[in-house]
Every structure is written in C-alpha cells, then in structure tokens.
Design a protein that fits this description.
Strand content: 35-45%
Helix content: 10-25%
Shape: flat
Structural class: alpha+beta
Strand order of the largest sheet: 1-3-4-5-2
Distance between the termini: 37 Å
Order of helices and strands: EHEEEEH
Low-confidence stretches: none
Number of strands: 5
Number of helices: 2
Largest sheet: 5 strands, antiparallel
Length: 141
C-alpha cells in the first residue's frame, strides 16, 4: 500500500448543503413525521461529504468505502429548511480514515457523529465482489 498521509491531512474537510425536499423526509414512516428530515437522509449526506473529502485526493485506482458510521440526530428539521453537513478528517490510519460529522440547519445543530472509511484498490474490490457473486451463483445451481 502507500502512506495515506502523503495524500490526506487531518483537518481536511468538505461541506454539503441541501434544501430538505419531500424525498429527504420520513415519508415511509408515520404521517406525523412526513414533513421532517429523516435520519437516513442526514447519513446519506454525511457519506457524500466524506467521499468528497477523501476520494479526489487518492491515487488513481483507489477509492474510499464506508466501514462504520455513528450518527446522532439531535433536532428536527422541517421540509424547506437548508441542512449543511461538514465532514472533517480527524485521524488517518494505515488503511483507513476517521471523519468527524457535524450537521446543522438555520436554527443550529441537528446532529453529529463519526464515520470511518477504508481506502481500497477499486479493481481488487470489484474482483472480490465478483468472486463472491460467482460463489452464490454456483451454490444456487
């Protein structure tokens, strides 16, 4: 592998902002929550921000993949409000990166957490996935 610290730095960050749309709300849950931002939408934005923070700085052929996420959704956000998510690198390991997550809307904090992403060779990852799929195909024959 290579030294990730040659490509990434602690403190490196990215932000994503989005106006809450109907598709970001808890429409799949009880009607009382239909106009509120769903936690999975926050997590999705955090993952997008983390990818933006890391992947464009990696050498060709390498990507980051999520290995864990912990997100605490602390306040409701209504349809039409703007949510901003910031992910910042707080630790760089030999093969992974730990990011801090901060989320807020016009009224203040709505959530926080941490997200770990492993750095992998994209071709090797796809080959491993195909190998696992091939095993399943053979097993079902």
């Amino acid at each position: 592998m290579f030294d990730l610290r040659k490509f990434l730095n602690e403190g490196q960050n990215s932000m994503i902002s989005k106006v809450v749309q109907r598709s970001d709300t808890a429409v799949e849950y009880p009607n009382e929550l239909n106009d509120l931002l769903a936690t999975p939408a926050c997590v999705h934005m955090a993952i997008e921000s983390a990818i933006e923070t890391i992947d464009k700085y990696l050498p060709d052929g390498f990507i980051s993949v999520g290995s864990s996420i912990r997100f605490v959704h602390t306040a409701p956000t209504s349809l039409g409000m703007t949510v901003t998510i910031r992910t910042s690198i707080i630790a760089i390991g030999d093969h992974d990166v730990l990011l801090d997550i901060k989320a807020w809307d016009e009224q203040g904090e709505i959530g926080h957490g941490q997200h770990r992403r492993a750095i992998v060779n994209k071709e090797q990852l796809i080959a491993k996935a195909e190998e696992r799929t091939h095993f399943l195909t053979k097993r079902n024959s």
